[in-house]
């Protein structure tokens, strides 16, 4: 890979505020971060810390007030709707907390949806690998209403992976699942990064979920305040508890 | 509860507007037609009261049934003059005149009369330019005729009267009080008295009526009684006021029909509107299920939930009625303006009025229709258990068995009503049957929608957005079905009419090709009106003598009375020639020659009347005493001359006009028809109303009126289709709102805006084309039923308007694209993040 060798996505001094004047709320206050290729990164922080906003900005779902966002070699900042759409389609995978699937399509159709929208052929071998990894082989013809919540999230994971995107963004992917289903999904994300070299960025507020990541970034009041590498759930929890005492330079 | 409902209503303005639009359009049509007819009625009443302003009492010959009244004599005028209290008595001559314009074409009106009279100088007419007619070749023109035809004093004008074209010199132009060109768009001329009598009544010293004015101190009623007493029972004596009312009532009777037609279309519009309101409320209630469940869990009763939905409907109905009424007044006024100016009637409009009937019907219709449409969804909403609704669960597909069975029963009921309706020629049953059948088909459509939608959708879903659109349209069969059913109504009505008209055209073509063995057909304008244009008998002789003509015959025709029954009679010049050319095969007796006192008729008419050869029949002809005829010939049923009595040539003398109305020519073998046509045409050069045509030209002329009928119906039903389009927009818009999160997801994973729009367009086109296919199917069924019922009336062939039907399909697809525009734009503009987080 070229200039951004080893970096799948990065934010350079990103600012994001909503509203204007006195009512303006700053969600991100100069965040700079590089997300390494083939790693599973978790973004953590209390609610209102800006973790979801950061992810949205990184993924091209939201525009930034200041700074730049890059995905691979592509400068996201400044792209028009068409460019952003194609970027999301070709270079980004998404896993949302819920309502990930279209009820009118089967599991298989949902998985290949981004490829179909882009008019691309499905890499059959890769599709099989992904489907077998998430264990959905016998569920491919089912509609989402016929699947359990955990199965639905696994379909969403498969969909995010099947187009081999630069980055997969997962927004609280286990937020609506019981612990066992959640563990399955998280384990799958971890394996994707380790075995397939897939870059994954996950937003979560669950220390246990974060413990599956290679790297955990902590956000508070729109700024990155801590970082842990391959932490245990206890370490994450501990860090979260002490976030309050971390001083945030005021703007 | 009331407040909660209003809040919820106002918070969804788009929804409010969409559901109200259908009601507004329907109500607009209802109130518009009331306003229009009310305005026209008052205008006509004004018109006639001013037309008879100078008439205190009017005397006319008593009308006997089926008989042309004897004109009045100068003696009658003298008698009236001798009655005490009479200030003046003036003999009036009046009769039909068709003026010929400078382009040598007859000048027509759109319904207003064209007539001539004697210039008396005592009426309301005042000479504007020039002078009164003094010589036999002089006329004065009504100012409206002068301005429409571009005639000035000193010009020459050709006039058709009882006699063929005669040319007169225009010596003057007259107008009415206040400088008005005409009273109601009529074209009029006035001759000297002897000329008027000869040309208009065909008789010297004859008068149509006597206008009497009262001396000072004599009341109209007293004068009427005195004149009536003097003249005796053979005369009709009426006051001017009574006459004005009578004539206005006659016109208003015609307007009533006009009103019914407009109300009929308003009914169709509302009928379609019901589908849309019903659908809108179903969707709204489905979307509000959680909100309603919340209300229920907080202790609102089922009744309160129903009440809240019905209240919402009531408010929408009320607002829509007010807007619709206002719009209807505007439309009514506009139509009245168009009627009086563009229509060439030059009618002086009375002020635009809003009759009570318009207000009452607007509110009744608008509110009742909306509330009825909302009750069903409200009942359904109230039945949902609060907990079930609060849970995040898509509304499960309810089985379609019940609705399908009910639908089948309703279709059967509608079909039965339709059958009885045709059988007993009851319009109420026919229309009722059609409407009930529509409801039935609408109930069946959810079942049909699954296979049909997937079939139609397959044609459009070559790309992913197309596939998604198709899946979306199949997603909620009821919703798709009702939306499509609304479109079905308009399209099926037009298709039904088209099928009937195409079948009629085909029947006429076959008739002309197979059964009329004639090469040229000579006929006058107005065959469908009372008095068709006609020509003199000696012209027919000249046609017979034309080079290349093998044989020719013609007939005079008139309505005759048999007892109380009006029948159609013709008196051909050459019965033998008619027998050959029309291929009449004897069933009983023989036709040629038809002796005086004999008549001939087709077998089905004979069977209907129970007559056989030798039966005697008493007929009242217009200009004779009742006369007895013997049935001499009954011919085997053919498509020509249906329901006609054939009388001997001598009977024509007792017809209102003994001139030839239609004639048929056979050309010698080997002579080109076109050559003979060129030689025959000059014989009618002085009669622009007569045309000489070959067979195909004749068929074209006869069937051309169908096109006009079809066009009118298409224009009127366009409204029903417009409302249906609103329905499609409505359904799509509400679906877009409902699927906000899905749209957000699609956009997030990389669906372009254009693809989103294509997805919604495909859904829209599938729904529209489904509606059109349904409409075509139901329309063909209705058309076939009608053709079957009219088999005895001469529609023997079945024809399908393929081209038109394909056009409707294309229009429907186009309509689908148009309907998708706004919802698609809305969907494409959704903010991705907001959409994903949408509740």
From TrEMBL, chain A:
Molecular function GO labels: ATP binding
ABC transporter domain ranges (all copies): 9-246
Transmembrane segments: none
Keyword Transferase: no
CDD domains assigned to the protein according to its UniProt record, in alphabetical order: ABC_MJ0796_LolCDE_FtsE
Record Gene3D superfamilies: P-loop containing nucleotide triphosphate hydrolases (3.40.50.300)
Cell division recorded as keyword: no
Record keywords: ATP-binding, Nucleotide-binding, Transport
InterPro entries attached to this UniProt entry: AAA+_ATPase, ABC_transporter-like_ATP-bd, ABC_transpr_LolD-like, MacB-like_ATP-bd, P-loop_NTPase
Cleavable signal peptide: none
Alphabetized SMART domains for the sequence: AAA
Record-linked SUPFAM superfamilies: P-loop containing nucleoside triphosphate hydrolases
A Pfam family hit: ABC_tran
PROSITE patterns linked: ABC_TRANSPORTER_2
Name of the molecule in the record: ABC transporter ATP-binding protein
Organism expressing this protein natively: Lentzea rhizosphaerae
Lineage, highest ranks first: Bacteria, Bacillati, Actinomycetota, Actinomycetes, Pseudonocardiales
